[in-house]
Amino acid sequence: QQPVQSPQAVILREGEDAVINCSSSKALYSVHWYRQKHGEAPVFLMILLKGGEQKGHEKISASFNEKKQQSSLYLTASQLSYSGTYFCGTEYGGGSQGNLIFGKGTKLSVKP
Amino acid sequence: DAGITQSPRHKVTETGTPVTLRCHQTENHRYMYWYRQDPGHGLRLIHYSYGVKDTDKGEVSDGYSVSRSKTEDFLLTLESATSSQTSVYFCAISRDRANYGYTFGSGTRLTVV
Predict the structure, then answer these.
(1) A66: left (phi over 0), alpha (psi -120 to 50) or beta
(2) Which is nearest to A18 in space by CA: A83, A79, A73, A86?
(3) Which residue has the higher pLDDT, A54 or A34?
(4) Burial environment of residue B110 by CB neighbours within 10 A (0 to 12, 13 to 18, 19 or more)
């Protein structure tokens, strides 16, 4: 039930936009997004609950399509500091289903 | 003011020896987790805790045990370390799984030789 992230890697120039997708074959309760820089711990970006809400964080926003069981992370006007690996974490419900299952990550490289 | 600390940060151990990793939090959060991170696999859940003495298995729990005798401490033990357990181990905490994100510790890099 590991969510599938796409693309696996993306290279951008500063100022360009990117979209990272996270898809599940199972009904989702919520989706989390994290960014991890090399040698560091993952850092929480945002959480989206089922209901199709869209959240924003600086120039990074995300959406949650409940029907498609998919979430997308939007990075606009990318900056060098956006480089890192982005992980989505999916949650399927309460109890033991309430733990996050993470995708394999999308490596984002922003070049000057 | 990290709120969550892991120890040790690095450890090299021999195959067959027991190893204990410690996660300590000062946030009084109910939920604590142990993940391992390996290239090509992302983060995989080993064990989690939803309260003192309340723990349960995650997706890759074989060869690992945990204990939580106090709210602030969550211990991960490799009962008899194997080379396949060479990994980076992250502890995470969460106040409420429904509406809050996880805060991760800085990680422990474990090498089993």
Answers:
(1) alpha
(2) A73
(3) A34
(4) buried
Residue labelled with tokens 């890759």: B60
> B25 contacts in A (CB within 8 Å)?
none
Please write the tens of the pLDDT for every residue from A50-65. Answer: 765 666 666 899 988 8
pLDDT over 80 at B18, yes or no: yes
Q: Which whole number is the average pLDDT over B83-91?
A: 98
> Which of A37, A40, A31, A36 has the alpha carbon at shortest distance from A88?
A31
Task: Identify the closest residue of chain B to A106 by CA–CA distance.
Answer: B42
Q: Average pLDDT of chain B? A: 94
Interchain pair A98, B98: CB under 8 A = yes
Residue B81 and residue B112 in contact, taking contact as beta carbons nearer than 8 Å: yes
